[in-house]
Amino acid sequence: MIETVKFKYQELIDLKFERENINDVNFEKQHGYRCFYVTKHLTKNIVLDWDSTTQEIQMVRYDKERNVLNRWQNMDKNLILNLIDFYGEKKTYADYAMNAC
User: Fold this and answer.
1) What is the mean pLDDT of the chain?
2) Which residues pair with 61 in a beta bridge?
3) Dist. CA 80–CA 3, nearest whole Å
4) What one-character-per-residue DSSP string does 5-64 give?
5) 7-10 long-range contacts, Cβ below 8 Å, gap at least 24?
6) Which of 2, 25, 54, 56 is most deeply buried (CB count within 10 A of its CB)?
7) pLDDT confidence of 72, banded at 50, 70, 90?
8) CA torsion 70→17→6→78, rounded to 10°?
9) What is the C-alpha separation between 74 and 54, in angstroms, rounded?
């Protein structure tokens, strides 16, 4: 069984996730703070989405109209980090070679 992994907000910022503030009066009244999304786009249609209340990440795949096609939850932390690396910021062979065994 995979243990549920929690990420702190600053960890996500360090991994170059982006925060988007949402103006939702009902959410703010219910929770006492403004709604926001913290996401990282792996591709045009695949996003890592962080839930601030559970501190868990899920991977979501969208179609062209932004309808959810699939959702993957309860991912292992190493898998999440490997996905970020696979789709990530490194642009050249040299960037990857620096992390070689």
Assistant:
1) 85
2) 46, 70
3) 13
4) P---HHHHHHTT-EEEEE--HHHHHHHSS-EEEEEEESSSSEEEEEETTTTEEEEEEE-T
5) 7/50, 7/55, 7/56, 7/57, 7/77, 7/80, 8/55, 9/38, 9/52
6) 56
7) very high
8) 80
9) 11
Say how many residues make up the chain: 101
Where do the domains of the chain lie?
9-97
* Residue keyed to tokens 């009902």: 26
As given in the structure block, the two tokens for residue 63 are 């179609």
**Residue 22: beta bridge partners?**
35
Exposure of 48 by Cβ count < 10 A (0-12 exposed, 13-18 middle, 19+ buried)?
buried
More confident residue, 1 or 77: 77
